[in-house]
Design goal:
homotetramer; alpha+beta; Jelly Rolls; Endonuclease I-creI; 2 domains; 6-stranded mixed sheet; 6-stranded antiparallel sheet; 22 strands; about 30% strand; FormamaseFmdA (chains A, B, C, D); hydrolase activity, acting on carbon-nitrogen (but not peptide) bonds, in linear amides (chains A, B, C, D); FmdA_AmdA (chains A, B, C, D)
Chain lengths: ~400, ~400, ~400, ~400
């Protein structure tokens, strides 16, 4: 890097709609042409819009959440060609910094309606809701969830290299099979390719049609490339190692989060924002073979917020659901129970259920798999940091219901 | 506490078989008479034998692991009556210390045979195996897994209060239903009451027969009382809050671990030991209602080993299994994948698969639920601390196969 | 804060010389008119130039360091009137963020010549030297000290409220007495008021003359207001509590550091930079009395880099100097010895003495007062984090002299 | 280590007076015969009595502190011959564990009378006082300082190898010179050899006389061998590297502390106890040359209590004393000021000055050298952990004087 500052590999313009941005796409497909080239060992800045492309506004109604159009997400910045990267290499990213865009110092957390998007607890909490967060340097707070304030563990929710054509085929095949096998269920189990609202600045009309038919949705992360992994610890200073599947890697990034809790439980659960990420890219030749790599790995940076282990309350969860049904070693059911325990805890202080749901999704909670072998009960723990509250929520706290306002709801 | 030291509420004698010990039991049942009484706010020491009751020896063969008799486990110390505790109260435990017994400064980690106990990865690694760990103050090392040494995050694997008769009935009913519903599966899904080898020092023959018929097995933890939760962070200094279901609480503890990784993946996966735990007991009247408590909670102590966030390698896992099958939001499948990634990583340095399986089970690895909303893929992460190795296993390491010996196996 | 971003209370222009900047001053004096007003509970951004006002350049010669004009330092931004602040109040600052200026992503560490500024070890290392650091997000590295790279613990070196007239008199009196009492020494012991190069944008010519005669120099911190305290831990998220001595507080800030080690031993020892600091100001009425406050206090933020306690080598120092002379309980002598031990350590790997001196000044080393009561030896410790090096400098390291280049020196 | 537990290299008997113990000495001298031999790479346990040899009792009077006989201290266990150690080698210690003796689960902190021992603040607080601490596993609390409880950072206050005859001569010479040069001072500046109450179990009467004349006192630590360094961080898991000056090393250890704050400011300031330390010894041949070692170094263990950086209040101190006198770069004066600020803080809550003095000495406070270059003011910081109090002492706390009892004082 010279004295003149770090080069921007991509910039966005918040005044324009996402469809007019010149460096975005919203599907994974190997044929999307690269928007720019980055040198091996180069450090660049990359700007990103929020994952919904500005659908969610800084106001006190959740109507925008209710009506969100999920065929349009996620708007990723890229793809970028990384010089010298070839299939079988590993792309090494050092995330040197992540920042909100200066001109938009706020973000949002949403709970989608059960019938449009849903979330981890949508059967219990089916209504759309929203919280707006104001950024105060490294901290954030929300008029919709008073009494809480915390430092962000800022990170990208999505990063990955493009799949090869054959990998894309594998994805589509296995997710289609799941859909076929689950027709009896009353909810969606996977997002298959969707022609509506495909966006890829760099693609021709014909190509867009192809992408619409074949392009993998950005909703799930996938083992072969990472993608939408939503790992809260990929913060400043982290190094991420990504498998390369196509020549040039075709790296994309987006879905920046100011903060997120383990699980991102409300789905739109992080503090979603527009921002800029500074990444150093380098190519590890033949890395997949040398590291015997099948999925991405990472090494966190050294600057995680530190609360001290004794400043968390941990809630146990087991794979017996709230109706008393016994599941066999199901960590998902167990973690759901750990989540529900936090509702019971925080309700006592005056928060409403949707405030708690929002908070659990975006605050730096720790979700652990504790025991996964004592049949039939998986055991998980969920650690709630008590120092994010400006009143005492510890076990010793004197409990009294406070007036803690409300999150934003949709008009009926 | 006076000047004369802390009172022992129970002592064991390692020279005697468990069946001759006077303060043990191996089933959960409300009718097991208390072995001793502890005052409210009293601090006591409680000795425990290892969970198998001495079945596993400090030698270089895994024959004992292969032939382990699981109808006899877990040997717990108790039950203890805590004065003033009544149903609806919360029993507060401060775990002031946990230590191995001076006369037995070693422990074991085992992999049970697929056909006798099994573990999280028994379909891939079906053979019995064992590692013996020598304790060196706060550290441990093993002749069966050279090149690794780490401080123990010492803790009890099991603690809980006795169930009430009606709670016991609930447990037996729901676990029986699971067994009924899973008859098509080729493996055991739950441990129902088992009359063989019931042990309860304080019980009459008639009572023992009743316990054999009704007593809940100690293998799973259960949401209503905790029990076998296997939470690695319940270490020195932790406070644990347990629901009380019977008069006097009838608290029991056992299954002490010198160390364990999140998940305890090989089932006999912690470093199992005989030891002594120092606990302060106090009763929070009406705690279950006041805390709206449905499952135990805890606050960790301040002395967890600290490696620094940048001293872990994190492995991502998604709910697609190793055969390419897509599961729907299954965190258990995802964590299994995170585990498998560590095998691939460590094999390159010369460890055999069973050494890795043992190590993953007992070393202080961090298992997180990262994303649980992006259908259909749950995402987990598993953090491997690199400072437990005395050679470089980082991403930058020069990889060469070392002679790293072997764990103990069974004779054919 | 509204949606439109945080207000700038002061901006600088790096294209202009400091004397043409409109919001700076370089002496402490109660009569310097305020440059702007800040509301109680307001959050503002404040830009600062580097402490020397651009005297030091991004090049490979230390001539600028050799010839630095110390009558001109430190250029502080301010003073700011904080609404409602009155003498006796405490001004509460939350440091929400500190960043380098985007257009100048580099900083410098200097060793002043013994005859012009000097430093903690100038009798041993009298020559001027310099290292330029490039900022890479939260990290920095230097072409002048290869092999090392670390995250910055970014902070302001100077912040404080203006002294009252009588406090200023106290300062001048006690420092003059020291100068009088130390005439026999061969070095400067304090910086008394200096008319040359007084800068105060907002002051008239007459006032400037007065400031030149009376204004306290910014070189030392002072107990009554803090000022140049050079505390490395006043980083993002910290709260600082400052005594207020004049109406409006007249707060100033400057001397921003990308990183610094405990002691800042080479004097120009931090990584000095131009930057922007985001502060929330609030006034605690009668705080000095209520807190019984005589000197500033602070509470660090939650985001310090974490290396893990076992990733430091600690060097002991005692109050016996390198010639074998015994001092009585002198922690300054002891810390000097701790510093010298690091030279001996790092020389073995190929660094030259001036590189080590620079590194010790700016890297996140931990300087502790260990024992201060065992006559006649004070004992200090200095912790060197080994993870800032990209080769092994641990006790177990295989030592070999590397080619580690050189820092910048002055032409002869 | 075999299966039978770790060998004791020395045991003490608390029923006997120190003069009848068989493995103790209380001066540093190369001729003291070894009490036992330890193999290279061997792990042993070593028992120690408290530093005063039982002079201080578990009661509520400080008469014993007032009348303490300091000619008898410190009682160290040793010396031990370490096989293969020769001058020029480095003795590597891994401190695998430190524990109080089971039969004496309490310790003491004392403030010596100004006229008999004194301490860092004896001019302000000249009276003798005492607090007794009860050990509760890893925690301690005191009936003499209610409202506070913390985990111990348990460690040895003294460890070192015997000086050679010529090194001993150097010590005696330089400390005598200091005494000669300070005759004008009204207080003792160093402890010269003292024939009274020399103890060395293994020495003949003639040798004892020689030791009395020449033997170095144990009060100060010294740069060439460490000794009484009082470093709170030499806790479980630490590795210490000590220079060897005589054949066999002649290692001694004692002055075990359950906890101590940086500075150990009241002199008898740690929580002093009898205990047992488990150490692995290994010899690094030619280590002094290879490491260019002039003073001991150490690497802390991984299990320090973690409070989180934001759970400390830091108090700034500068080298201007409480009478307003300006000192030149004197870190000792500055740290004294940091200490005094804590008195002002805690008095507001109801503690008396001697309780605060005791607490500051033994609680895990962090003392840092912040700035040591801005003439004439050294700046130190002292971090007070707020989580050791069971009521709120933070800046935001509602201050009210509580009834916090009293420490033990001497009868008049």
């Amino acid at each position: 890097m010279g004295k003149e500052g770090i080069r921007y590999a991509a910039k966005v313009d918040l005044e324009k709609p996402p469809t007019e941005q010149t460096c975005l796409h919203n599907r994974w497909h190997p044929d999307i042409p690269s928007t720019a080239t980055i040198k091996n060992n180069e450090v660049v800045k990359i700007e990103c819009i929020d994952w919904t492309g500005g659908q969610i506004k800084n106001n006190d109604s959740a109507d925008d959440i209710k009506n969100v159009d999920l065929t349009r997400v996620h708007y990723l910045t890229g793809p970028f060609d990384i010089e010298t990267a070839e299939p079988g290499d590993v792309l090494v990213l050092e995330i040197q910094d992540v920042q909100p865009l200066q001109e938009q110092p706020w973000g949002f957390t949403g709970i989608f309606a059960k019938e449009n998007g849903g979330g981890f607890l949508d059967d219990l909490f089916p209504k759309p809701a929203k919280a707006i967060w104001d950024f105060e340097g490294i901290f954030c707070s929300s008029r919709h969830i008073p009494g809480v304030r915390f430092p962000g563990l800022i990170h990208p929710g999505i990063l990955g290299c493009a799949p090869s054509a054959s990998l894309l085929e594998t994805w589509n095949k296995r997710e289609s099979e799941l859909v076929s096998n689950c027709k009896h269920l009353d909810h969606e189990v996977a997002k298959l390719p969707e022609p509506r609202n495909v966006h890829a600045t760099t693609a021709s009309a014909d190509l867009k049609e192809k992408i619409g038919k074949e392009g993998a949705r950005t909703i799930p992360g996938r083992p072969e490339h990472g993608g939408n992994c939503d790992i809260k610890n990929l913060s400043r200073g982290s190094k991420v190692y990504l498998p390369v599947h196509v020549s040039g890697a075709k790296f994309s990034v987006g879905d920046l989060h100011f903060s997120q809790g383990d699980g991102e439980i409300s789905f739109c659960g992080a503090i979603e924002m527009a921002g800029v990420i500074t990444i150093k890219f380098s190519v590890m030749k033949d890395g997949m073979k040398n590291l015997d790599m099948k999925s991405p790995i990472f090494v966190p940076g050294p600057v995680e917020p530190q609360f001290g282990p004794g400043r968390y309350i941990y809630f146990e969860g087991f794979s017996v659901d709230e109706l008393g049904k016994q599941y066999y070693m199901d960590a998902t059911v167990a973690y759901r129970q750990s989540c529900l325990r936090v509702f019971e805890w925080l309700r006592r202080f005056g928060y409403n259920d949707y405030q708690i749901y929002l908070l659990l999704s975006c605050a730096p909670i720790q979700g652990h798999i504790a025991g996964i072998v004592d049949i039939p009960n998986a055991c998980t723990t969920l650690g709630l940091p008590i120092d994010i509250f400006d009143f005492d929520v510890s076990v010793e706290a004197k409990v009294e219901k406070r007036d803690l306002g409300s999150c934003a709801f949709a008009s009926e």
